[in-house]
Amino acid sequence: MSLETILVLIYLAICILVGFVASRRVMGSGDDYWVAGRRIGTGVNAIAIMATLASGGSLIGVMGLAYKQGIPSTLALFAGAVVGFPLASILVARPLRNFGRYTISDFLGHRFPVRSVRILVPLLIVASFTAYIVAQMKAAGITANALLGIEYETALTLTAVVFIIYVSVGGMVAVTWTDVVQGALMIVVVLGTAFVMSTRGHSPHGLIAQVTSVAPELGQVVDKPVSTYLGSFVIWATAIPVVPHIVMRVFAARDADGARMSLNLAMVAYSAMILASVLVIVPVGKLTFPDLADADLVFLRVMEAEFPPVVRGIAVAAVLAAVMSTTDALLLACSSAVAHDLVGGAFGQQLSPRTKSVVSVGSTWLVGGVALIWAYSPPELITRFYTAAIGLLSASLFVPTIAGLWWRGANRAGGAASLWTGAVVYLVLALGGFDGGLSPILIALPASAAAMWVGGRFGARESAELLDEIAALHQTPDEL
Amino acid sequence: MPDPHGGPRRGRSTDIGKREPRFFPMRQGDRLYVVALLVYTAVAFLPVFREPQLGGISVFGWLMAVLMVLSPAGALTLFVLERRRRARSKDVEAGP
Questions:
Q1: Which H or E run includes A80?
Q2: In this complex, do B45 and A226 lie within 8 Å of one another by their Cβ atoms?
Q3: B57 — alpha (psi -120 to 50), left (phi > 0) or beta?
Q4: Which of A117, A288, A417, A472 is the most buried (most CB within 10 A)?
Q5: Burial A155-164 (b: 16+ CB within 10 A, else e)
Q6: B23 at A interface, C-beta within 8 A
């Protein structure tokens, strides 16, 4: 067994151990299981948010994309996520944390108390996130297969079972503890690699000049309409404030200020990681390996060429960490959507704490199991697949959430209409292969906003009590 | 049509002569930041920045890189300033 494999197995064993240690703290209450008792400190939450967002796509995918499609288009895609953080910090962090529940469905169901909203939101979350989880599982399987020589199916099953175990028994506490380790590992590996490259005479400025002189396509915008880049940018910028696995981290913060600060710090760490990857590691990879058939392997090839086996083992663990830190949060969000939003919310079942625990653990295994079976024969266009899944959530949840928090005229008619319109328009355009020069999100979002406006204009206005409640959510700690 | 939820109808106000704002209030700094972010993004995506290059990278690419530095820095600065302002006003209320 190679040193790399041993390091990865130790890492997986630690993840399971963390899950069982955390399980002693969380099985008694929903607060503990879903939002870690709302006791997560700012620094820890910031690293966990960064790790949650930074999936295999942000580590392996970002470098593969830059290698293949050039630096500008890659930065356009990931700048959307970076811009999403301040939008989340300003638009949703304080009011949602002050709202003090568990999920985005809780807020939308309260602000727009319509049965279809209570049912549709968790269903959209489960559908989108299952697709997202499949993509992440495939990334884990491919990485372990390529670097450790383990069969795809075996690697897939091993990593999937590990994170299903620690999420199901340890809830948000386990997810947070593992995310902190995983986030720290990613930051150290990416920034450390970029730093070492720079000290070996590869300054970012010199590197870019050198690489673009031999491979000018790296600095050019590839031949696609600007709207394509704008579509990806908008999907991620509007997703961050509303995607449930990020929003649950807002609810897990100690207070509203902690939620805002952790989003801001997470954004700095994420931005530094992406810029270091694209402006330092990719140029080194392009210079050293100019003709890689599989661009996604550029990071791993650079690690192989420049570092000893121990560091390579840590790098493989960092890639798995990136995959697992996102997947565990997605799985927890799916589990909350089923157990909390659907069973306890939309269907109004009063469950005993023990039954709630059983439903939570069961739904985690169910969603994880379905994703695992799907991942044995995953769709080929995996990036398009999961970006479309996130696009569905942006298209349906962004307008109702932001309007619900900031517009007094938002009412249940507008909320339900904008949710349905965003989801249906996006699905029709994305699945129907729409090719009208505009990305589906650039049509679905305005359609959702228009539906909200029409509902608000012609529907009955919400009660003064509800509007007062929403106004109170915007207060600072001194005003509360 | 009567309002089934008991709230005032659109266009009316609970205080006579005083119109209710349409949006919940946002701090001025936050508002300016969001507007600046939107304007920067709209400008950066103009097709005119696709072709010209600076140091081998398209100007569009540099604009995105700058956005990735400025947006975190700006948001963090705004948040720290807001907390300081709140702390100062607390001190003033508390007195010497």
A1: helix A71-88
A2: yes
A3: beta
A4: A417
A5: bbbbbbbbbb
A6: yes
Spatial neighbors of A394 by CB under 8 A, at least 6 apart, are A234, A235, A238, A239, A242, A243, A441, A445
A6 vs A13, A24, A316, A372, CA distance in Å?
11, 28, 11, 24
Interface of B with A in 24-83 (CB under 8 A): 24-26, 30, 33-34, 37, 41, 45-47, 50-51, 53, 55-58, 60-61, 64-65, 67-69, 71-76, 79, 83
How many Cβ pairs closer than 8 A exist between chain A and B? 153
Query: What is the tens place of the pLDDT at every residue in A279-313?
Result: 999 999 999 998 888 888 888 888 888 888 788 77
Q: Is B10 in contact with A212 (Cβ distance < 8 A)?
A: no
Residue with tokens 């910028």: A237
* DSSP codes, A85-123: HHHHIIIIIHHHHHH--S-HHHHHHHHS--HHHHHHHHH
Indicate if the alpha-carbon torsion angle A98, A104, A105, A108 is positive or negative: positive
Half-sphere exposure of B77 (CA within 13 A, CB side): 8
How far is the alpha carbon of A406 from chain B, nearest alpha carbon, in Å? 5
Q: How far apart are CA A442 and CA A230, in angstroms?
A: 8
Q: Which of A172, A150, A237, A130 is nearest to A22 (CA)?
A: A172
Binary contact (B61, A229; C-beta < 8 A):
no
Distance from CA of A160 to the nearest CA of B (A): 33
In chain A, which residues have their Cβ closer than 8 Å to the Cβ of B73?
A: 268
Interface confidence (ipTM) of the complex: 0.84
Q: Which residues contact B6 (CB under 8 A, 6 or more apart)?
A: A463, A464
**Single pTM value for the model:** 0.85
Q: How far is B32 from chain A (nearest CA, A)?
A: 11
Tokens of A130: 């299952």
Q: Note whether B68 contacts A274, CB cutoff 8 Å.
A: yes
